Predict the 3D structure of the following.
Amino acid sequence: MNAPAPITVPTSIEETLALLTDGNYVADRALATTLYLSLTLNRPLFLEGEAGVGKTEIAKVLGATLGRDLVRLQCYEGLDISSAVYEWNYAAQMVEIRLAEAEGETDRDKLTADIFSEKFLIERPLLQALKPRPGGAPVLLIDELDRTDEPFEAYLLELLADFQVTIPEFGTIRAAEPPIVIITSNRTREIHDALKRRCYYHWIDYPDAARELEILGIKVPGADKRLSEQIVGFVQKLRKSDLFKLPGIAETIDWASALTQLDKLTLDPNSVNDTLGVLLKYQDDIAKIQGSEAKRLLDEVNAEIAAAGA
């Protein structure tokens, strides 16, 4: 059976918006414009923003809507080439050397060529993303790049500039078709300008109330309309508070799902206090909001909803 033809990339900003909508992603025109340019001009897209605002989700949506494989490199401190790009299967190489010795193989050049061939090469995400695939080039997600060290950033420059990887014992591997590259950062540290220059850049901010309500309607369709309005209003006010970690859209969705699971149709002070651990992830933040502060914020939200409906 022949593999299905890959879905072509959007040919306009409107098509890009429609593509994201098909993947249940609510985007503004500025994001759709930057993504459209990235897709059509084969430039990596560098997304920065607070945790939980939907940066990673864009790569997942692109993979699903374009029918492409998603190759994800989750970054962390100490990430090195052997974990991100490739390593040699040393155990299998040693077995090959022992077999060659047992057979009396004396041609060292031939043996070296054999043990440093593709069958002993273990491909990690960055190398996997350069390999051709029946459905088209994959979506390569380099997630939370700010967690890595600067030397790893420097290594990425060759990949992002020429879509190739050089392996000293093997040679240079180039992508026949460049992957769709999405890089995310929570901005826990600054990424070097040399890497940013190779990308198109977009900052994803917290959504305004209208867009957040639209997102909830898509992600938690079972939530009561009034409950969703209260949730969004409460979260929007929380983001103006002095908290250690402000809730992202991911936390808003989780909170709406939890309250719906508890059969809540409206927010009340008790339900807020009982479920704040779904929305806030630090005890100091929870302690600051629980009780009288939660009631005050909820009263303000209810008053604004009532005024809007009057």
